[in-house]
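Narrative progress, year one. The postdoctoral researcher (J.K.) led the effort to move from monomer predictions toward full complexes, under supervision of the PI. The following entry was the first complex the group processed end to end, covering 695 residues in total.
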Amino acid sequence: MIVQGLIFYMLAAIMVASAFMVVTSRNPVHSVLWLILAFVNSAGLFLLLGAEFVAMLVVVVYVGAVAVLFLFVVMMLDINYLKVREGFLTYLPMGAALGVVLLCEIAVLAGGWTMAPEAMGLRAVPAPEPGTISNSQALGQVIYTDYVYLFQAAGLVLLVAMIGSIMLTHRSHPNVRRQKVADQIARRKERTLKLNKVPTGKGIS
Amino acid sequence: MMSQSLVMGPALPEILLAVLALAMLMLGVFRKGDTTALVGWIAVAGFAVAGVMTLMGSGHDTELAFGGQFINDGFARFTKVLVLLGTIMTTIMALSWMKREGEGRFEFPVLIILATVGMMMMISANSLMSLYMGLELQSLALYVIAAFQRDNLRSTEAGLKYFVLGSLASGLLLYGMSLVYGFAGTVSFDGLAEIANAGEVSTGVLVGIIFMVAGMAFKVSAVPFHMWTPDVYEGAPTPVTAFFATAPKIAALALFCRVMMGPFEAYAPQWQQVIVLISILSMVLGAFAAINQTNIKRMMAYSSIGHVGYALIGIAVGTTAGIQGVLIYLAIYLFMNVGAFTIILAMRQKGRAVENINDLAGLSKTNPLMAAAMTIFMFSMAGVPPLAGFYGKFFIFMSAMDAGLITLGVIGVLSSVVSAFYYIRLIKVMYFDDVVEPLDRLSGATQKAMLAISFVVILLFFLVPAPVVDGALAAAESLTGGTSALASSH
């Protein structure tokens, strides 16, 4: 138990520290790298909870896809980050004050936290007996049965995101020459190549 | 767990629309040429069919589907029909606008269908998770259509602003939900209601409810979460603004009613004061901030903030009469807005769209019929009897008086007097100012039809109010169980 506790505090501390660095570091590329560290640590926290499937998802999706995408965007867009940071110091006191107030409120909430008496029982309803089946199997059993409605709805939300990003950014350029695979495959020698017999000493007119 | 069969009959209209959206997407992508009109009219037909299915479905029962995630009761049916009506009318408006401006894109009707599916899911939500999925589906589609004119700086600004602030509101809502779940250990509305009725009140769950109220107040644009409304309403293309002002607002207010009267009904003494506060702030700000506006779309934005304030009175009251008032108000609000926005869409000088209030100057001389229609809509919004808008306000204020919320009712009446000022100023501009440049004549049969329908509904509502009033009563009873939530607290 003590080892687990120590690992938890280590992961949590590194995660909070790297999240802090994401916000404060000057170089945006460093920010993204700190973000990756935060993601990896959160994956570690999931592992500690026994949710190994979610942990792997976090690594694959957030580190592997999202963070790399961020990195590309940061490197490809020419944004003057010094300008974005203008006014950081002027807003700092106000922001810090708000943050401290929120922190105190959360502390009060967490300190006086009570649960409904039946909460623990209700919470365990959708979860199968731990240890009997694997993580991904347990997820699959509820996602495709009890929560199929939400699963389908999530699919629609993603579809809207896809339509939206295409609609807002895609432009058709009529003058662009595109590759037409079918035409290329259907090309025959006779249509493009002309064989001429060249008489000696005369050339082709 | 595996053996129970999947019940999805009650969600048939939603499933139909979702499948229709996919089919229309395919049609738009694979058919050559501009398919906006085709896709748009099929979408309108789909909405009509879904509306009929909603009306026909299973009389007065309350049905659950998808393992209790989805509820279809009288309340859901009433508000869904309102949402579908609003969507149909604004889609038709948008289609004729796109034809005129030559800005048609088939994605627009597809996104409208998906947004409507989201709204219907919100209305039928029976757990915190299905609430959130519906809300996100609707919001995400709305962010995109706000930025529909992507080469127009104001439209993209509107889309971006709506997106950033909307994400913040979603975050607040989710945070509140996580606190509620942490207290109760369940996300289902029935389970939450059971735990709430067991009597224990913890600080955690109250803070959670307040965060959820904040998130939903953003979606209905109630003060102090209204900042996005004027900018988005002004920047978005006018038919999109008309859509924003009707269907999503009705859906979000219905969701508000369901959440407050369903799972959190037992906490009513706690949340009532919060709703009273945002209601008063919305009414007062809606009345005073609209006075100075010169842009008619901005004025309508503030007017809609005010209207949301009146509707929130009904939720604050928390009785069957209050919810009935909200539903009647929403039904009438829908027609007033469709009418007013048809006129705003018709505001063109020499083929160019204009949107300043002063551009309406002297409309009574150049186009008396249009001026008369706008006058009726404005008087109705101000709540002048015997027009429909008066009845909406009447039922709301009566329910507040009956529940003993006299101050709230009085502030409502007073702010409604103040707001009458800017509605009537518009009428003054139309009737007593001199023509600077005449507006173009109304063109297109659909526009005229839309104007005629909303005109007749608003003008003659007092002759046959029964369908709306009785329907709203039945719907409200199905939500509150026919009892008044706050009866014991007064």
